[in-house]
Design goal:
CATH architecture of the largest domain: Sandwich
Number of strands: 22
Structural class: mainly beta
Shape: elongated
Radius of gyration: 25 Å
Number of domains: 3
Distance between the termini: 37 Å
Order of helices and strands: EEEEEEEHEEEEEEEEEEEEEEE
Strand content: over 45%
Strand order of the largest sheet: 5-6-8-11-12
Largest sheet: 5 strands, mixed
CATH class of the largest domain: Mainly Beta
Length: 281
């Protein structure tokens, strides 16, 4: 049984004449709200204990109310099952190093509605357990460091997919760095750019062809005119003779989103595609 996160068998000390309100948050855990003798509020049952770490140590019941302070390292942070921790469990978590920490709850459990969540250097959050999943409250936003953000820059067209005939392919990956974007080329389906990390992305597509060109979100083989407003992130249409055009956008994307370059097949003199993660959340 826990009282304010203090392990079973331990004690929570109150001064003489302190007033104590005991609230049950589960069948095995209680929270204390105390008022000092002079009438001022005393928050929590004790001071916040700091636990400095440099590698993954699974977040457990004993971390309730603790400040987990990551002083270095890039790794995935694992969690005890939400049902085991129970509704009401919480901890503070700070990435105080220069690496990137990926929050990865148990099995198929979610954190802020996603399977994983990235914490960059300087990020600090309050983690809360509902008994079935985790939510966070951001206390401080981190900042990007060199090498954290991702970019894929492709040049030289390679026609279109044989099945997805509206989806461009490319020949040369001039830049392919970082982990936020996975680029894949398929002779049948064309080029795809899968988003692995939520954040803001800058995308630009050049094509030297007549008709419509577009940057598509979560499309299959849609052309410029077949996309919905939500799917069409940026587009241009010109029925005149082939000439170089470009479309671009800045948009927020989540893990699992797929970006494609949509354009009519035909002779190519210049084609390029550039996608960059420019900010995280």
């Amino acid at each position: 049984m826990l009282i304010d996160g203090v392990a079973s068998g331990a004690t929570v000390t109150c001064a003489a004449n302190d007033q104590v309100l005991v609230k049950s948050v589960s069948t095995t855990q209680f929270k204390l709200s105390r008022v000092k003798y002079d009438g001022t509020a005393q928050v929590g049952g004790s001071s916040v204990v700091r636990s400095a770490r440099t590698t993954n140590t699974i977040l457990a019941a004993g971390d309730n109310g603790t400040l987990i302070d990551i002083t270095s390292g890039t790794f995935s942070q694992t969690f005890t099952a939400a049902a085991t921790l129970g509704s009401g469990w919480f901890c503070y978590y700070r990435n105080n190093g220069t690496g990137v920490v990926t929050l990865d709850p148990n099995a198929a459990e979610l954190i802020d509605g996603a399977a994983t969540l990235i914490m960059y250097p300087g990020d600090a959050r309050l983690f809360q357990c509902t008994g079935t999943e985790f939510t966070t409250i951001r206390i401080k936003a981190g900042v990007s460091v060199a090498g954290v953000l991702s970019r894929v820059y492709l040049t030289a067209g390679n026609g279109n997919g044989s099945t997805n005939t509206n989806i461009r392919r490319f020949t040369t990956a001039t830049v392919n760095t970082g982990t936020a974007i996975t680029y894949a080329d398929s002779a049948t389906n064309g080029a795809t750019f899968t988003i692995n990390e939520p954040g803001f992305y800058y995308i630009k597509f050049w094509d030297d062809i007549s008709g419509g060109i577009a940057i598509g979100l979560n499309i299959s083989n849609e052309s410029y005119g077949q996309m919905t407003v939500t799917q069409r992130l940026a587009a241009d249409y010109d029925p005149a003779a082939a000439h170089l055009r470009e479309v671009s956008c800045v948009t927020y994307l989540v893990a699992g989103d797929i970006i494609k370059a949509s354009s009519a097949s035909g002779a190519i003199s210049y084609v390029a595609f550039d996608i960059n993660k420019i900010a995280h959340v």
